[in-house]
Amino acid sequence: MTIRLAVIDNDTGFLTVLAKRAEAAGWELRQSGGSIPPRDLVAMKLNALLVDPAVLAEDGWDYLNRVCETLPDLGLVVCTGRSTVAQRVRGLRLGVDDWITKPCHPEEAMARVEAVSRRRRRGRSEPDSGPVVAGELEIRPDQFQAFVSGASLDLTRREFELLQLVAEARGQVLERETIYQRVWGYAMAHGDRSVDVFIRKLRQKLEKRSPDWSYIHTHFGVGYRFDPEPVAGVDVGAPLREPVLPPGPEPVVEPAASQVVHSSFTAE
Amino acid sequence: MTIRLAVIDNDTGFLTVLAKRAEAAGWELRQSGGSIPPRDLVAMKLNALLVDPAVLAEDGWDYLNRVCETLPDLGLVVCTGRSTVAQRVRGLRLGVDDWITKPCHPEEAMARVEAVSRRRRRGRSEPDSGPVVAGELEIRPDQFQAFVSGASLDLTRREFELLQLVAEARGQVLERETIYQRVWGYAMAHGDRSVDVFIRKLRQKLEKRSPDWSYIHTHFGVGYRFDPEPVAGVDVGAPLREPVLPPGPEPVVEPAASQVVHSSFTAE
DNA sequence: CGGGCTGTGAAAATCCTGTAAACGCAGGCG
DNA sequence: CGCCTGCGTTTACAGGATTTTCACAGCCCG
Predict the structure, then answer these.
(1) Residue nearest to nucleotide D18 (CA to C1')
(2) What's the pLDDT tens digit per position in A191-221?
(3) What is the largest CA-CA distance in chain B?
(4) Is the CB of A227 under 7 A from strand D?
(5) Inter-axis angle of helices B106-121 and A85-94, nearest 10
(6) pLDDT of residue A58
């Protein structure tokens, strides 16, 4: 759960430590020495804003007020030097979510930003990302299902989660251990073939609905990569000659064409 | 905007002032000298809980943890005497929304409780949505009841709430945990089958009044989806023809049709 | 060529859901 | 006050669906 935070402050010591810790935690941090117009805050798509009103040129109350009105869903934490109870109460009533005073441990500041973001997020009913489209495929998190031109792939829950995971990392090779860890939620036992089995099921269902596309590629000795690409040979016109398959009602041969293997570290 | 708050503390001086101010603000305040079991907290339908872990007999962390898990929507504010940064960080990470230290002005405590409640409340959908019509069904929030061509389904309160919830999310798959959380108001215990049981009751009553429609669909391993659709085979006009699928291979499947497992047994 | 590594199919184990019935509780009523 | 009734909760079980496991075959790369 990554947090996008902007900090408006000029306490370099505090900022330095905060930046370091934020990076370690995987947060996306944006710093500013002066007030950021609410318009720009919107564009930054933040989870939270940490601000010391002392550095604001204009009237701090006014600024806080405008931020609260413009971005009701933004987590807002104020971090001041000295402050009175009356000031804090005023701020909190105004719409500030938390008010901390310096000297303040960066770790606590982060924990409070986290708490505020968590709380804000909980109200939101849509933690998932919107539908993803890849090739002919449409992945809909709200349905726990994937579709090709409206037809469901009939994925089970695990299959869907696996597909969603690899699709989100489109183009990137994911190791089995990583996949297992993220889909199953715990470490993969040595020799477990579950990932392979589910990849196979996925490929089957994908090919059934979208035969002309290849989605999941094997990287020998590494893992799998999701990357939709039209299958070679079947495309816009220009059929050279008889395709490989011999005539016959039921070609038993499963060409296993899905196995496009790339050298481990060769980029196409 | 009235707030329902419970306070677990025994600092009489603090409590007295707090009670007076809370009353003046029109809050509903409930006091306790010791820990309140999460079960009872549920029944109180609180907006927020203010607690001093010092008065907890058992392990404070354990209690806070259980409260957070059981009531994810409850605003939780801790108010301690002395505390370390590490303790505060631990609490906030655990799920506590705000952590203040005594001596603490009651007004600030209230302001923080307010801020926490405000955050919690945000994002909640409008409490009163207009009547919903779906298929032959008409859901009337003002009556806490649903009707089919004027005839009541005789839903109980829970049944109605469940129906309203899934109907508002029409077309979207809702997980059991989500449903439980939103209808019952607290976290679903592992292995609880209440949602299934109520879904069954709903389906029974729906089918009784509207036999030719199918409303609630099961998504195996995930949850349920509300989507009214005429039941296959029986509808307007004369179904002289075979309702069975045509001989052609795999006609384009209905868009919304994803592994529907709705039992076809008509118990009666 | 051989030692991994991966694809495949099916059996075995596990999990999930529908269903019914028992249970407990609170309010209404005689 | 005790009984009855409606409602919500819990439990048990059976039938399926899904997941895991296994053995084997084929493939890749050194």
Answers:
(1) A156
(2) 999 999 999 999 999 999 999 999 999 999 9
(3) 82
(4) no
(5) 10
(6) 72
Is B236's pLDDT higher than 70? no
Whole-number Å distance, CA B223 to C1' D17?
A: 14
* Contact predicate A153/A206, CB 8 Å: yes
Give the residue among B16, B17, B25, B13 at the shortest CA–CA distance from B4: B25
- At residue A20, φ and ψ (nearest 5 deg) are -60, -50
Q: What is the pTM of this model?
A: 0.81
B233 — pLDDT class (breaks 50, 70, 90): low
CA dist., res. B132 & res. B130, Å (int): 6
Report the distance separating Cα B172 and Cα B153, nearest Å: 23
Average pLDDT over residues B75-97: 96
Q: Which residue has the higher pLDDT, A158 or A57?
A: A158
Looking at residue B106, what is its pLDDT?
95
Distance CA B95, CA A37 (A): 31
- Predicted pLDDT of residue A119: 84
Query: Which strand C nucleotides have any atom less than 7 A from protein CB atoms?
Result: 5-10, 16-21
Residues of A with Cβ-Cβ distance to B92 under 8 angstroms: 108, 111-112, 114-115
Residues from chain B contacting residue A84 (CB–CB below 8 Å):
none
Q: How far is the CA of A176 from the C1' of D25 (A)?
A: 22
* CB atoms A111 and B121 under 8 Å: no
Average model confidence (pLDDT) across chain A? 86
| Radius of gyration for the alpha carbons in chain A, expressed in angstroms and rounded | 26
Set of chain A residues whose Cβ sits within 8 Å of the Cβ of B97: 115, 119
Strand partners, B148: B137, B151
Strand D closer than 7 Å to the CB of B194? yes
Beta bridge partners of A220: none
Q: List the structure tokens of B121.
A: 């409340």
For A109, which residue in chain B has the nearest alpha carbon?
B89
Please state, rounded to an integer, the average pLDDT across all residues of chain B.
86
